[in-house]
């Protein structure tokens, strides 16, 4: 609740509303205040509450960034220091250091640009606006000015400029707001918060910045060189991830209990001619969009030797029962879901969500496709009709 209370206080604090010219003038001052600096360091605490969780997760890092006009991966070099982990990028390698085990993993950036940082939660700790001279930030503000309200705010005796974007509701999301709080005395970012609601659940991300300093010297590369000395063991990163495919699929590990039931189920025990599997989890928006299509398929073939199952190996049915009940209320499924047994979850390859699989009686893959598609019903129907005509 503390995270939600902080965000609400920030959103309602404020007095005078400013004109568009005054907003543009302040933003020009903010951007120009940082353009001559090469390096930026700061502490940042990020709290995040996902749609599917009741509590926020909080992590704090010390970050050092240095711009580089020639770098094509991050537009600069970086060091991100957590209590037990360290991440870095020096223009050649992307690093992940485990402080407890004293093990450093490094990946060649040109081969694996997304590994360790860009494709993970760690990327949230990088102020990309500083590295890219705020070009994207400026564009985003200009495109969304019709939703922007700007005020002065006095918080704990300090003067801030507060930007609040209140975006219009759409079919799926509502009450979406983005807050940016900038210290007027030195044009530094103090806080950023994003709030949105989906099917009665809120997702909140809150960034708190402190100890911000700037330098006209390149500092990150020296910091990275020093940090590399802290680790005793070096491992070269190799992408050994098994992708979910017809070749890696193992029907024997599709086992668990039915959602809202204690009934144990194994997909190989079902001798139906054809089985359709819908891999989903509760925070997956494309999964939710797919449910009406899968319902339609289940209803179309209800009298045929075809069985449809939802497959969930992410959510915890024991700890998240109220949330999953609400999820089912908002997204009715006409087919049962197997909650995969925790003892076999780590045997699954990396899965993209949603993923749809058609199996034959013996558990062999006939069809597999990942991602939401408006044409999914017709695609699957064509395949099933062909299969049924041959039986």
Describe the structure.
By secondary structure, this protein is of the alpha+beta class. It is built from eight helices and 19 strands. The strands form two sheets. The chain has a twelve-stranded mixed sheet, sandwiched between helices. Strands 14-13-17-16-15-18-19 form a seven-stranded mixed sheet, with helices on one face. Strand 10 and strand 11 form a beta hairpin. The longest helix has 16 residues. About 25% of the residues are buried. The N terminus is likely disordered.
How confident overall, as mean pLDDT? 88
List segments where confidence is low: pLDDT < 50 over at least 5 consecutive residues.
Answer: 1-15
Could you state the order of secondary-structure elements as H and E? HHEEEEEEHHEEEEEHEEEEHEHEEEH
Strand content: 35-45%
Largest sheet: 12 strands, mixed
Tell me roughly what share of residues is in helical segments: 10-25%
Cα-based radius of gyration, to the nearest Å: 25 Å
Major β-sheet strand ordering? 7-8-9-10-11-1-2-3-4-5-6-12
User: What's the helix count?
Assistant: 8
Quaternary: single chain
From the N-terminal CA to the C-terminal CA, the straight-line distance is 57 Å
Rough outline: globular
Q: Count of DSSP E strands?
A: 19
Q: Which class do the helix and strand fractions yield?
A: alpha+beta
Attribute tags:
391 residues; alpha+beta; twelve-stranded mixed beta sheet; 19 strands; 36% strand; globular; disordered N terminus
